[in-house]
Amino acid sequence: MKKKYLIILAIIGINFTSCRKSQENKTSPQYKQLTEAVYASGNIYPRNEYKLTANADGFLIKQTAFEGDLINKNQLIFQLESISQDARLEAASNILRQSEANFGDNSPILDELESQLKNARTKLSNDSINYARNKELFDRNATTRIEYERAELAFQTSKNDVSARRKAWLRTKNQLYVDLQNSKSNFKVNAREGDNFRIRSFEAGKIYEIYKKQGELVRKGEAVALVGDANDVYAQLAIDELDFAKVKIGQEVLIKIDVYKDKVFKAKVTKLYPKLNKADQTFRVDAEFIDEKPNTFYGMTIEANIVVSQNPRVLTIPKNYLVGSDSVWIEENGDKKKIKITKGVENLDMVEVKSGLTEKSVLFIGN
């Protein structure tokens, strides 16, 4: 980028016009208020800019918003074809419903086991009564040992059967609970996988560009759309590396946008980026608009002046009176003389003279 210094006198109420020349192209230095600025070029971008990307491979089969549309946070914007994943999700959903039925209040599996346990307890109760009666009879020698032992064996068998059936009921219930939790986890995983085929917005904003059309194949990690803040923009500027040291955070920036013709927007420097862009030998600087902001059109080209110093009263001459980089022709006692001067701030139109001339000096162009 060619180094430029612009003077912003129109903004502070002072005309840009060079010192008035005589018909012989003569002039004299004048004290003026001089503002030094660094030239920058760049573009306008929305804040909170991000790209919507795909988390899975698939064909784009549905689109709910288009370029220029305002969108809400977490709004579904695109949907990719997901036949295989939909089938897996449906299978997981069916398994989950079956698991919930198996472990629910009306579980057919648990009802059957509970019924078997109830019958075993009834038999145990009968066998217990029969055992007690036979024991009493045996103690009074009213029955044989064989009948007594048969009743005792039936009672112990029923007792063991009740214990076994209760353990089977608890074991089955615990297993059905584990199956239900696994089914829930499997369903959540498949549902989450299904979300990879649905592309949603991260934040509310405006869609500035869409990179894919319906029916096109989208690869995992591929950008599908560009989204940014619909109400706020900032200026992204490129500063020549020779001027970068002069730029500080908080400095005033005067911005000209081609779309707005002669209108000048005011901003301030908010961020300096320390990395040099080797392609064009520039540094990036961001500026935030003050008061009025331009419309949120993405990438509008701008030119800007960053005010780096303001000199309320300095001796200046028109730049076209310079000979080389530090000399001028003056008239002294009727003779023409070439002398050297010490320059200060300079720009495309004016040069500050620190020494070598006074207000009474008479300058002219050429020999």
Quick gist of this model?
With 367 residues, the protein is α+β, with helices and mostly antiparallel strands. It has helices at residues 83-103, 108-139, 145-195; strands spanning 5-6, 26-27, 30-46, 50-53, 58-63, 70-71, 76-80, 198-200, 205-210, 217-218, 223-228, 233-240, 252-257, 264-277, 282-289, 301-318, 327-332, 335-340, 342-346, 350-355, 362-364. The chain is built from 3 helices and 21 strands.
Task: Outline the structure in words.
- It comes from Emticicia aquatica.
- It is found in: Cell envelope.
- With 367 residues, this protein is α+β, with helices and mostly antiparallel strands.
- It folds into three domains: 5-47 and 232-364, Elongation Factor Tu (Ef-tu), domain 3; 50-81 and 197-228, RNA polymerase II/Efflux pump adaptor protein, barrel-sandwich hybrid domain (OB fold (Dihydrolipoamide Acetyltransferase, E2P), Beta Barrel); 84-195.
- The protein contains three helices and 21 strands.
- It has helices at 83-103, 108-139, 145-195; strands at residues 5-6, 26-27, 30-46, 50-53, 58-63, 70-71, 76-80, 198-200, 205-210, 217-218, 223-228, 233-240, 252-257, 264-277, 282-289, 301-318, 327-332, 335-340, 342-346, 350-355, 362-364.
- The strands form four sheets. It has a six-stranded antiparallel beta barrel. A four-stranded antiparallel sheet has the order 2-21-17-18, with no helix packed on it. A four-stranded antiparallel sheet has the order 4-11-9-6, with no helix packed on it.
- Helix 1 packs antiparallel against helix 3 (145-195).
- The radius of gyration is 45 Å and the shape is rod-shaped.
- It starts with a strand and ends with a strand.
- 22% of the residues are buried.
- Mean pLDDT is 88; it is low at 1-23.
